[in-house]
Amino acid sequence: LVSIGNICRSPIAEAVFRKLVTDEKLENKWRTDSAAVSDWNVGRFPDSRALSCLRNHGIETAHKARQITKEDFQTFDHILCMDESNLRDLNRKSNQVKDCKAKIELLGTYDPQKQLIIEDPYYGNEKDFETVYEQCLRCCKAFLEKSH
């Protein structure tokens, strides 16, 4: 799960997906992680508003931001991202990777409410983080149902 800085949207999506997989007792079938297309926040914990939003839904995460690597394109089956800018960057990066096996697509592709883009809530407020959470939950549920 990929976003620009890996401190708002993608760690929320990662934590949501991991909880869904755990609740369905499918942990042994999935390796879940998130990353950034940029190196801006490498090593940082998620935004405090993202952590607060997750805690409000009973989800904890110890994720630290990292940048996507060539190995990610070679080892993951799916790389799901948040917006068109992420998609462009990932497609460009994947073209430089030999043996890219990951299918790269927008997480919003799976949204039953057809909201394709998950907007960055960084410059918004708690309500914007809640919107991201709800979108990620819908999309991750639909993706998981389609994938197993």
UniProtKB/TrEMBL annotation:
<dbReference type="InterPro" id="IPR002115">
    <property type="entry name" value="Tyr_Pase_low_mol_wt_mml"/>
</dbReference>
<dbReference type="GO" id="GO:0004726">
    <property type="term" value="F:non-membrane spanning protein tyrosine phosphatase activity"/>
</dbReference>
<dbReference type="InterPro" id="IPR050438">
    <property type="entry name" value="LMW_PTPase"/>
</dbReference>
<keyword id="KW-0963">Cytoplasm</keyword>
<dbReference type="Pfam" id="PF01451">
    <property type="entry name" value="LMWPc"/>
</dbReference>
<dbReference type="InterPro" id="IPR017867">
    <property type="entry name" value="Tyr_phospatase_low_mol_wt"/>
</dbReference>
<comment type="similarity">
    <text>Belongs to the low molecular weight phosphotyrosine protein phosphatase family.</text>
</comment>
<protein>
    <recommendedName>
        <fullName>Low molecular weight phosphotyrosine protein phosphatase</fullName>
        <ecNumber>3.1.3.2</ecNumber>
        <ecNumber>3.1.3.48</ecNumber>
    </recommendedName>
</protein>
<comment type="function">
    <text>Acts on tyrosine phosphorylated proteins, low-MW aryl phosphates and natural and synthetic acyl phosphates.</text>
</comment>
<keyword id="KW-0378">Hydrolase</keyword>
<dbReference type="InterPro" id="IPR023485">
    <property type="entry name" value="Ptyr_pPase"/>
</dbReference>
<feature type="active site" description="Proton donor">
    <location>
        <position position="120"/>
    </location>
</feature>
<feature type="active site">
    <location>
        <position position="9"/>
    </location>
</feature>
<dbReference type="InterPro" id="IPR036196">
    <property type="entry name" value="Ptyr_pPase_sf"/>
</dbReference>
<feature type="domain" description="Phosphotyrosine protein phosphatase I">
    <location>
        <begin position="2"/>
        <end position="146"/>
    </location>
</feature>
<keyword id="KW-0904">Protein phosphatase</keyword>
<dbReference type="GO" id="GO:0005737">
    <property type="term" value="C:cytoplasm"/>
</dbReference>
<dbReference type="GO" id="GO:0003993">
    <property type="term" value="F:acid phosphatase activity"/>
</dbReference>
